[in-house]
Specification:
Layout lengths: L29 E5 L5 H8 L3 E7 L2 H11 L3 E4 L2 H4 L14 E4 L19 E2 L8 E2 L3 H12 L3 E7 L7 H15 L1 E9 L7 E2 L1 E9 H4 L27 H4 L10 H9 L8 H8 L7 E4 L5 E2 L6 E4 L4 E2 L2 H7 L13 H6 L4 H20 L1
Parallel strand pairs: 1-2, 1-4, 2-3, 4-7, 9-12, 11-13
Antiparallel strand pairs: 5-6, 7-10, 8-10, 13-14
Length: 365
């Protein structure tokens, strides 16, 4: 397949320029976003021409940032466990084109404790109520069963498909079916979608049964009644050299500098240098970045180091790498925390654009 030389959605953009992105139809299909965080997915839907009419979030700091940047019509600051039970939801939530959600995923992350934390109540962040993170997906799908949107997009880490967590994924698929949806699971890489970041994520995409019956089926997939849907992306990778900002205010020092001086070109993090010096492979959360590659996955608590410059990424580079707008108001929240906890807007814009043009547009004709 020919590699695209032009990106459909801009990774370096501003909220001030408005929505949607240049050349994209302003169709105003309706979206509601759960676990909205700072609004990464919301900005993606808006870039793709959608109208995000509201959100649900448990974290007060994130909700404040969301409201500052997006001014939602409806904003529910409460656990989804209680939100899904409300009987006073506005009528417009029962006429959604997309119900969006990114249930907190630390229970399934390969960098986390995984099975050791399953079934335990945890605070995902200071100030939040305790909740069992690995059941939030099912709370989300119970809300979907009540609202019956045309389509559902649910994002999570790739670890949800690996090891014992695969059993959770099978239960999630069953919950989609129980709610009245055809569902298919896609693993996508943001770096192939116009995002300057190697970020692989899993997307459970559901289509309501009556809608699916009106859409063409992929004749090349045997024994599968999921509607035909092309989610293949192959845009040219955007490297660190393209997003660099001439900023050297974050030099590394102390132990990290000592480990960095021991690190070898091509290593992905500092664990191997730590192993050589101290005999144990710690510091794997210190990612090493190279100019001729897209940066690695931005994590909320990660430290990203430009190998040949012995410095950490600047906030501007984090913003560009996460495809966030340069004028986003982080409201004193850590830039890399907000971006690390968010779906890159351009990643969602690409998926949402395909959903509209391959499915929803035909339904509206």
């Amino acid at each position: 397949m020919q590699i695209a030389t032009k990106h459909k959605f801009p990774y370096n953009w501003t909220l001030a320029n408005g929505y949607p992105a240049k050349g994209i139809e302003d169709h105003k299909s309706k979206v509601f976003s759960c676990f909205c965080g700072g609004g990464g997915s919301t900005m993606g839907y808006k870039l793709a021409g959608y109208d995000v009419i509201g959100c649900n979030e448990i974290d007060q700091k994130m909700m404040m940032a969301y409201q500052m940047n997006h001014q939602p019509k409806y904003a529910a600051l409460e656990p989804i466990q209680t939100f899904k039970l409300r009987k006073d939801l506005p009528e417009s939530l029962y006429n959604l084109d997309i119900l969006d959600g990114s249930p907190p995923c630390s229970s399934f992350s390969e960098a986390g404790s995984r099975e050791k934390d399953w079934g335990k109540e945890k605070r995902f962040r200071e100030g939040q109520a305790k909740q069992i993170l690995d059941t939030l997906f099912f709370d989300f799908l119970e809300l979907a069963k009540e609202l019956q949107p045309k389509t559902i997009i649910a994002e999570n880490v790739t670890g949800i498909l690996k090891g014992n967590a695969f059993e959770y994924s099978k239960k999630i698929v069953q919950a989609f079916l129980k709610a009245g949806y055809k569902v298919k699971v896609f693993t996508l890489d943001a770096s192939k979608m116009g995002v300057p970041q190697k970020r692989k994520r899993v997307f459970f995409i559901g289509v309501r049964n009556d809608i699916a019956a009106r859409l063409p089926v992929d004749n090349f997939t045997l024994f599968n009644d999921f509607p035909a849907f092309n989610l293949v992306f192959n845009e040219k990778e955007i490297t660190l050299s393209e997003i660099k900002h001439n900023c050297h205010t974050r030099p590394v020092n102390g132990k990290i500098l000592r480990l960095l001086n021991e690190a070898r070109k091509g290593e992905r993090d500092l664990r191997h240098a730590c192993k050589r010096i101290e005999g144990k492979g710690n510091n794997f959360a210190c990612s090493l970045l190279y100019e001729n590659e897209a940066i690695r996955t931005i994590l909320a608590q990660d430290r990203m180091i430009v190998f040949n410059e012995k410095r950490q990424l600047s906030d501007i580079e984090y913003i560009r790498g996460g495809a966030f707008p340069s004028d986003y108001n982080f409201m004193n929240n850590s830039v890399n925390y907000v971006i690390g906890m968010s779906v890159p807007p351009v990643m969602i814009a690409q998926i949402a654009d395909r959903i509209f043009n391959q499915w929803l547009k035909g339904l509206k004709l």
